Fold:
Amino acid sequence: MICFFNNRFLDYEHASLHVSDVGLQRGFGIFDYFLAVGGFIPFFDDYLDRFYGSAMSLNLDVPLSRGEMKEKIFSLIHQNGLTRSAIKLLLTGGYSDDLYLPSVPNFFIINLPVTHSPDEYTEGIKLLLLDYIRFKPEIKTTFYLPTLSLLHELKQKSATEVLYHNSGYISETTRANMFIIRNETLITPSTGVLKGITRKHILQVASGLMAAEQRPVTLQEVFEADEVFITGTSKHLAPVVRIEDQVIGTGKPGRLTLMLAEEFNGYYKRQYSAE
Amino acid sequence: MICFFNNRFLDYEHASLHVSDVGLQRGFGIFDYFLAVGGFIPFFDDYLDRFYGSAMSLNLDVPLSRGEMKEKIFSLIHQNGLTRSAIKLLLTGGYSDDLYLPSVPNFFIINLPVTHSPDEYTEGIKLLLLDYIRFKPEIKTTFYLPTLSLLHELKQKSATEVLYHNSGYISETTRANMFIIRNETLITPSTGVLKGITRKHILQVASGLMAAEQRPVTLQEVFEADEVFITGTSKHLAPVVRIEDQVIGTGKPGRLTLMLAEEFNGYYKRQYSAE
Structure:
């Protein structure tokens, strides 16, 4: 695989950076992640908007203009020749003499085979709970240690992700946005979450089909919901059938969840067939 | 400078790691930091206790036994020949095929010249405030993005560190523990903080000199304190004379703070003269 580092293409195997990088030393880094399908990138501009927005929030300079960024990404996809692949953009505060203060950002574009498919989740998944608030949740920072500290427990309990909650309210899961359906109304937290690209388009798809609310959501509401699902770039829409030891709804993917998933799949495919 | 990476000594300039390391990709890393003075490391066992404790909390294997660790660190100090230097231990979740799941940890010992001296802080420092709770504060994780996101403001306002508070209570600053003195009693937060090594020994030094309490501390108490100071490995004991726009105490380092600083300096020097 070829990747892009700062100003050049190189073999991914040789994509190394000095240990003094503050992304490594101090967690001062942002990223974004999206899929390329047959040379097309669904919702490409949404992802770039978010990436440049994350960078600006932390006063990190992205070394490529938006036009250059697109050109490098499409060149990379072409060079690697994968039919379906993942693109990860990673931007850090750069090398640091004192291992603390940032300097000139380091920037990577990584293109790898996709490791997950939405099909993995169709039976419904299980979540664990964690009392945790992400710092500046609207920015896609690299800090996933809270969930990674629970990897053993996730595996042991056959759970996929962790649902973050605090003071009785939920925010999001490790790598996805949370939705509940109650009385045929779709509800998702309005604030304190990363504004997911799939989240945005699910709301778009749902707008013609059912009532939708963006507002604070309590953990209690989640447990009492008729249906629950999470949305993300790799997962699209994954039904949630269990949280910790409690069964959600009927314990099977809900009717409206499956209907939305099917509608979203059609909508998603139209993105790249329209190209 | 020479450093140590996984199983060998190498030139620090060449100390690079692959971009797939989950310390970089997912903030899954811990570290510790201490000083070496003339071939001696004050409170060495305390720092190693904490480092191995942090690793164990996250199920990360340290590739060196405690005996091997000491041997490598002393060898490094000897090879680099600095009279006064800093040692940083860094342990990450290792390289990851999917840029998420950890594998075999990567481990660094870095030995660099010291960039700060306790003398820098004798006039008293200014802190800014941030509503933030560190995740698992008892572990020395690498996530400093919350403070680094305020670097511009810190510089503009001539502030040194950020004081974290939440729901009316304080915890710690970016890189130090917080102490207040009120009615000749020393008070420091009991929980929700990294148990600093300097904190521990300041409490030890203070025990013969004044009353001391470890208990929850409100932000209001900090503003109303007679004296405030922070403690850390590089700073020893730094008087705090201003928080945001508010003057603390008289606006100058307090009498008991200076007395404790002097007592601590004597205690600190006796650590290595006793060797």
